[in-house]
From TrEMBL, chain A:
This is Extracellular solute-binding protein. Keywords: Signal. Gene3D superfamilies: Periplasmic binding protein-like II (3.40.190.10). Pfam families: SBP_bac_8. Residues 1-18 form the signal peptide. The keyword Coiled coil does not apply. It comes from Bariatricus massiliensis.
Automatic annotation (TrEMBL), chain B:
It comes from Bariatricus massiliensis. The keyword Acetylation does not apply. Coiled coil: none annotated. Residues 731-981 form the EAL domain. Pfam families: EAL, GGDEF. PANTHER family: CYCLIC DI-GMP PHOSPHODIESTERASE PDEF, OXYGEN SENSOR PROTEIN DOSP. This is EAL domain-containing protein. PROSITE patterns: EAL, GGDEF. Residues 587-722 form the GGDEF domain. InterPro entries: Cyclic-di-GMP_PDE-like, EAL_dom, EAL_sf, GGDEF_dom, Nucleotide_cyclase, Rev_trsase/Diguanyl_cyclase. The chain crosses the membrane at residues 20-43.
Amino acid sequence: MKNWKRAAAAAMIMTLTAAGCGSGAGTKKEKETALDPEKPVTITVWNYYTGAQQTAFDGLVEEFNQSRGKDLGITVKASNEGGITDLEENVLAAAEKKVGAKEVPNIFAAYTDTAYNVDKMGIVADLSEYFTEKEKEEYIDSYITEGSFPDGESLKILPVAKATEVFMLNKTDWDKFASATGAELSDLETIEGLTETAEKYYEWTDSLTEEPDDGKAFFGRDAMANYMIIGAMQLGTQIIEGDGTGKVKINFPEEIARKLWDNYYIPFINGHFSAAGRFRSDDIKTGNIISFVGSSSGATFFPDKVILNDDESYSIETEILPAPQFKEGEGYAVQQGAGMVVTKGSEAEIEASVEFLKWFTDTKQNTYFSAASGYLPVKKVANDAEAMQKETDGNETVGKVIEVSIETVNNNHLYTTPAYDNGTTARNVLEYSMSDKAAEDRQAIEADIAAGTPRGDAIAKYDTDENFKAWYQSTKEKLEQTVK
Amino acid sequence: MTEKQKKTVKKKSIFKKILIPLMGLLILEILILVCSVFGQGIITELNNNEKAIINEKVESRKNYLENEMIGSWMNLTYTAELINDSTEKLLKSGAITMQTLDNGSDYAVPLLSEAAEPLLAMMRTNHVTGAFIILNTGDLSVDKINGQLKDKPGIYLRDSNPQAQPSYRNQDILIERAPIALVRQMGIATDTAWNPKFDFQDSGQSYYDFLYKPFQAAYENPEYSMEDCGYWSHVFNLFGEGKRAIAYSIPLKLSDGSVYGVLGIDITQDYLREFIPNEEIADSGTGAYILALEQEDGTLSDALVNGAAYTKEAEEGKKIKIDSSQYYAYSETLNLYNSNTPFSDEKWVLTGAAPLDSIMDFAKKVELALMAAVTVTIIIGLLGSFLISYKVQKPVSDLSKEIREKDPTKRIQLCQTGIEEIDQMTQAIEKLSLDVIDSGQKFTKIIEMASVRLAGFQIDRAERQLFKTENFFDIFGCPEADGIEMSIEDFDAKFKEFKHYFVEKDELADSYIYKIPDGRGSRFLKLKCRMTEDSCYGLVEDVTQSLLEKKVLQHERDHDPLTNLFNRRAFRREVQELFEERQEELKTAALIMIDLDNLKYINDTYGHDYGDKYIIKAALAFRYYLPAGAITARISGDEFNIFLYGYDSEKEIQTVIDTMKMGLDSMVLTLPGDILQKVQASGGIAWYPKDSTSFEVLLKYADYAMYMVKNSTKGEILSFDKEHYLSKNSLIQNKEALTRLIERRAVKYAFQPIVDARTGKVFAYEALMRPEMEEFKSVLDVLEIARYEGKLNQIEEMTWFEAMRAFVGHIKAGTIAEDAYIFFNSIPNQYLSMQAERTFADEYREYLGQIVVELTEEERIDREAWDEKRTHGRELRRKIALDDYGSGYNSEKMLITISPDYIKVDIAIVNGIHQSSDKRAIVEYIVNYAHERGKFIIAEGVETEEETEEVIRLGVDYLQGYYVAKPTFTPAGILPQALETIEKMKN
């Protein structure tokens, strides 16, 4: 009798010891995880990727779900929520629980401003505790800093794919122009050079036909805000100047504004610059322009042929150059590309989100995604042009974009505006105030010309100090409104 | 329980008794469990349920999808009408013409730019991934036949995520096809595969189904409405773009019936997948939803798949045939077309395919859980049963062992088991033990109280236990041994010490007599043992007292009190034993019969005291001068028998006899007056084996020899002379004749009346035996031979039965009066066996009171035989008559000894009585003697009138004789002469 009791006691002790050992081993191993493969977590990711980027992203999501996600019990569902602006609106609508809005996603892609706004609603998770210092150090410093708001300690945006601006050129048509006019690619290193070259190109194309004033535009810009902000930076002015605590002030000196004006508005109304389609790559495609400054992430959209109409089209070669900078300015390049923001949720959801993002930004995946999309990897080790080239898989354009992007990143100060309450509004002011006015005025000029006004007169009507000042004042006011 | 029953009842340990039924129960439970699950087809049922669940899911999913398609995606008519309005307007204004409309983008742009807005709106509203409009006005089948396809103007838009909030700036939309003018106008980004027109001419792409089919349907069948010609295209990739999609399109048809293009939407595979989530079919995406066209042969073409299964086949455009050995598939048909419309025979189905594994997963889990439960149950059951059995068995077996090891003679105290019933039993055993000890003590006390000392023991060999009464060895004179603990071996050893006290074994009673010396004398112990298979019980009894008493009694029985020699009975017993059982010891032997001479004289002269002394003297001589082995007995008054045996020759015996004779002769009795009387005896010797080997015959011969001496010289002891014996007793040779006589009952009885001396009436008849064989002249011859042949007893028996038979015969014949008495002669020293007596009494019950037995004087009366006869006779109301009174040598003694009812005066007295005063005095005396004592006198042999008168005068009561009546075989009455005499005497 006694024996079996002893046996039972021994069995019990063994069980307890085993359990103890198990939990002991567990605490030694790592932080307790809320993840359980038996209880899979589904996390939603809202992004703005389209086309090839979307394909690449969805492919990686699928890969994650089948590999590490499966192991950890994580299922990622990615969905495109329109462009970056639509995405922001949708996130805010979800966060504000507007009628018809969806549930707040676990992860959404956002620029600093959006993230800042959403963070103020208290739904953004601080990821700093999920990353060791060593892990953080693996990322390019400025990318991490961008997401460390409002105090510089926390981590609200995890960089996943960054972009900067490059200059893309339809080399086929350029070569014709260059050989005819002696224009050189080096002319395109400065904004001033670009403006001159664009004028030259207009004149050269105008000369190709009998028809007067039918010159073609040379250049376009995708992101006017970048032009304004980075341009100002190069010229020594930080339009939106933050103090590190979320408070900003607006610096918008007239001479800076004037320089920006002269190098965009003036060539635009002259027809040297243009913006017809949604993106400047569309304008290249339709033969509207032959060069533009756009995000490196747009590399995949850069066309390989120009389609003039139903019957006329021709293939083109592409040249990628660093974005032109103001002649006397400092070397600044834009740092863009949204990061990923993780919203507050259950511990498992946050962990799952972090796991996905860590995996996604891990060198292999990140390099692949960058190569497929024209984005830049976010880790220091991944920013290796040679390694990236291998991943581009023969897509020459993308390869070139990455090469130039890395060069840009390496040779310039990267800049992005500090986040603040009305950062988005300010950005929109900068994005549209000049471009919209330019587009509007160019339309009016064209109408005037069509109505018989000589081209010079029609342009002169708008190329005035008054016009500039009116715009300047209005824009300045709008900007300053955002900080009041 | 008998031994046999014990064997048939199989004994099992408690452990097994509990364990086996528990096991049985366990197995039964599990069988019931397993049978109830498998037997009832629960597993199949579960699988069927799983299938039914899938069926339901597919059905509801199909309904949902159908709703989505019909209710949302296929809503094209409104937009078509809007576009038709624009078209009509533009046609009217001349901006477009039907003839040039599809010639190129430039011709189509006016209409397309009008249509772009509604198209975009439709794409948003219908939540579809694509929307398109293709313009065409001619018969497409002609181009196909000619093999000259033409480019077609139109717009094709794609929305990357129709479910997301629409982008205000249409940033979520890409243009796939649209003229350049429209690209600029719409402000929508172009996709990489953008083309201003639908390129069929150079691309090698044939007319898309979504263009060709509905257009031709409307073109060829003017009676159909736009909706009637609505068509869900097969799976396609837009040229230059990789997304698999299906499209729904309707023809654009003006009110005048002219068809100028198609309007449609598309649904990409990626987007469709959101509507057919395969997770609901099977966990972890192993199942698949397939939207496809079902072919006649049941295969699926144009499949859009969500799920790993069959994706590859679908992507490669292969037809799918569901492998039923791996998948369970269920299809629901989507009702997308109205009946009798051009495409109503296209059968879109939604198929849910689940791996059989996943369907059976639950059942398998149930099965596994069940198996696990069964296994665990078995293990727990086994362990539990084992533990329970062990737990119950252990205290019981411990207790059992404890009890076995306990000394049952000591008070038993047992451990508690903790099992109530068993502890109760334990207490009962403890109490029983106390009771046993108590009763053991009681028993010892009772034994101590017995009048004789008793002791007992029991050896249990099986249990190796010894039980003995407290003072067991005390009875053996070793009280010190009682204080020592003894094993069986000790006991045996101690017991063996008493071996030399063992004196005899009584085989019959299985007992042993020990003679234990005890101070002054000895004590006798009787040990009785009883053995059973594995036990030995013994009782020791102090038999000293009873043994002594028995010996005295035996001595008294066997010895003559006067001489202390054996009596006749003991002698016969002892010698007969030698003859019958120890014949080998006899060797040469001699039977000597001795009769003391002169005893009658001494008795008569000096009284019986001196007679006795005389006898004692003789006995002393025998004692002194005969060797120890001689058997000596006093047979009757003056008669002694001596048996000498175990000698090698007659000579040795003769020497012994001579010594004894000399010793006898030397004996002298001093009689009163200092007269010295020498002891003198006559004797006969019969030799064994020379004369006979029969004891009886030797007796006869010795007797004969003795009588020879007695009748001649006296005072001598002579051997039997056979020659003389034979010559003198020729009749003896007729012994065979005697045997025949007895066998045949060859005798007849004559009846002589005995009449009343006062009335002359016949009072009785004497039955007289008449042998009917030549060899025998008279009854005396018969008796003589019978005596020598030792067959007197048979003669006696014959007499009784035959006389009585004849008598009864006569009564029945009327020749003898019913109340008459019968007299017949009996031999005094013979008597009937008990058996014969009983038979006689039964046979003649009613006549027993009429029997008078006459005892003759011829034989010497045997006291014992007489006593016997007398006792029986009294019981049977038998009367005795003394025959031949006055003729023998012992008449008075006989008279006293037998006390007869009738005295028959001998013929010698009656004959000539009237002339002899002596004879008259004797008769006078005996008549007085008899009448004073209520006895009757019969005068025998009355032959003359004078004798008759005289005896009547003397007062005799009855008369018998020739004068009265002669014996005749037919009984006769009294003779007239006698009657006259009696009459005369009366007067």
